[in-house]
Amino acid sequence: MNKITNFHGETTSGQNDSTVDTSGSALIVRVGERVRKARERKGIPRRVLSEMSGVSPRYLAQLETGEGNISIGLLQRVAVALDHRIEWLIGEEDPWTSKALRVADLFRSATSDVQDQVLETLSPESAESLRARRICLIGLRGAGKSTLGDRVGSALSIPFVELNRDIEEQAGMPVGEVMALYGQDGYRHLEGQAIDRVIATYDTMVLAVAGGIVSEPDTFKTLLNRFHTIWLKASPEEHMTRVREQGDERPMAGNPEAMEQLKSLLTSRETLYDKALAQVDTSGKSADDSLKEVLTLIEDREFLE
Q1: pLDDT tens profile 151-194
Q2: Measured at the alpha carbon of residue 157, what is the angle toward residues 154 and 163, in degrees to the nearest 5?
Q3: Do residues 82 and 35 touch, judged by C-beta distance below 8 A?
Q4: Is residue 12 scored above 80 in pLDDT?
Q5: Residue in 304, 278, 297 with CA at minimum distance from that of residue 206
Q6: Interatomic CA distance for residues 12 and 254, integer angstroms
């Protein structure tokens, strides 16, 4: 076995294998050259880099000349001081000439919309393939998502999942308690995790989600990309009536401005809901009529093909 001493003065055993040794030596040399090149390109003296990274000048000198290895922790400090990612220093591709690394840098700094366009262009799977045969019903509370979702699932013999029920099962408590314990941000985090679970579990299903899910950009983006989304619309008056018919008087209790607030909420979310692939207006319609319309839409748009 070969003995290797690192910059902490620790002695470790290395395999007596020429291939491993050669590979390790080449990596050490490559890292050293890249650290030196990055430092020189930025015009940073070794002494200054030492102060910025907390790595001694002696270690840096040994590193740059390829005469010694450096711990991952210290190398990370050097990378941060040079304003580079550590993978730039250890990867096989030259970070200054690699198109792949250049694209990765541009992707990280791009807006989410540009990132989506890039992923769509480069993805080997079509949008339809990514959505599989998953259908998601979105819209404000009282639009009929749970009722219609359950009936659509039964009519098509596919699983129906109500996302809040999944969150409750995973959290071991009602959604109200989840909100009280973790707050809005915590609930949205659990909501995103629940969406990921559903995608990993089902290729064919119908999902009903809470009306506010559209306010979390990343989670809503996942919904749009991985589900055939249908916006169930209804008038503000019908939303309110249906919620009260479910036995929930909270929207109106002690709040004479509840209807105006509901209208304002619907208006503020219309642009987001409108991103769904399809819409069904349930206003003034019976559950049976709305069900027929949703089933016809699913067939016409071939969401389960």
Answers
A1: 999 999 999 999 999 999 988 999 889 889 888 888 999 999 99
A2: 65
A3: yes
A4: no
A5: 304
A6: 72
Report, as an integer, the average pLDDT of 2-28: 49
* Tokens read off for 24: 């390790």
Taking the CB of residue 235, how many other CB atoms lie within 10 A of it? 14
Instruction: Assess whether pLDDT exceeds 90 at residue 110.
Output: no
Predicted TM-score (pTM) above 0.85: no
Distance, in Å, from the CA atom of 1 to the CA atom of 267, rounded to the nearest integer, reads: 72
Q: Of 14, 26, 10, 12, whose CA–CA distance to 74 is shortest?
A: 10
Q: How confident is the model at residue 68 (pLDDT cuts 50, 70, 90)?
A: low
The token pair at 305 is 């093909």
Identify the burial level of 122 via C-beta atoms within 10 angstroms of its C-beta, where 0-12 means exposed, 13-18 middle and 19 or more buried.
Answer: exposed
Contact 278, 137 (CB under 8 A): no
Amino acid at 25: S
Domains defined for the chain, CATH in brackets? 2-109 (1.10.260.40), 126-300 (3.40.50.300)
Nearest by Cα to 188 from 161, 214, 165: 214
* Measured distance CA(134)–CA(303) in Å, rounded: 8
CA distance 271 to 291: 24
